[in-house]
Amino acid sequence: MRVLGIETSCDETGVALYDTTQGLLADALHSQIAMHAEYGGVVPELASRDHTRRLLPLIDNVLEQASVGRAQLDAIAYTAGPGLVGALMVGASTAHGMARALGIPVLGVHHMEGHLLAPMLEDDAPDFPFVALLVSGGHTQLVRVDGIGRYQLLGESVDDAAGEAFDKAAKMLGLDYPGGPRVAALAEHGDPGRWRFPRPMTDRPGLDFSFSGLKTHTLTTIRGLESNAQLDDQARADVARAFEEAVADTLAIKCRRALEQTGLKRLVVAGGVSANVRLRARLEDATQKRGARVYYPRGRFCTDNGAMIAYAGAQRLLAGERDQVGLMKAVPRWP
Ligand code: KG4
Ligand code: ZN
What we know:
Belongs to the KAE1 / TsaD family. The chain is an alpha/beta fold. It has ten helices and ten strands.
């Protein structure tokens, strides 16, 4: 079965075609990052309008890449939430319109289920069960995954998501949006020995996270440097390094704990922050010591993309699920 996947929950228009026997046939992405950069963050109305402009040409592009005609599609999957409601509506209405015109099933997919299953698109996909660390701009969660649709939330952030913390730290350091990769690049030149920032909630049991205290600590450090006229390029790099080390360490400590608690030996890491090189090094270290293994999606499937939605939709279709055509779902907050 061939499933077209559509992702429009935030600032990337993603489209892909997944075949349940042949695997991924094609994928295409248009990122709005440059458009939002001058505003320092995603402007929801601009995001919706841009998805409207980009989506149909991207669908044509993917079908052309795969030499597949519309009539050969078996279902359409789209991100139904969580995300920006106007942005979600673009994907939802396009998916339902196409499904009605073609007389094929349609499925609304949870964005985080897409991220969670993205490593399954790799040749070396993990077997179930596994522990998943989902780290994006909106979520920081540890999930036990026993199979498709069999998810148990083990812990999550009680305040900011890890990606959000990266983006806020970037702003404090005068870096552009999106902050994660920029903080990481700056941290490369930082001295890891200059400060040790707190590893929040690691000194007590449990698998929840909190990043707002670390954010405040970062701000206080920057203000202190500023007031002493010491916030030069090196000091900014040192702050970026201390911040990144703290986030990576905190996430690794909780992952190790989740593996211990569940007795599982496979860790899947997905979502935008999973692209972070220092985090990957810490996780490699933490898992190797336990005889466990880490699995990641390939680079471009760490951040938002259509392939993960096509894959998740295909698995749900195989399980016999479909939504009522015409009953669009756009759920901005979806636990
Ligand atoms: O999964 P994603 O593309 O979108 C959401 O669903 O949120 O994640 C985006 C987040 C942003 O906060 C971005 O700053 C962060 O992932 N990010 C990174 C890196 N690349 C992206 N954070 C740290 N290091 C990176 N290399
Ligand atoms: Zn995402």
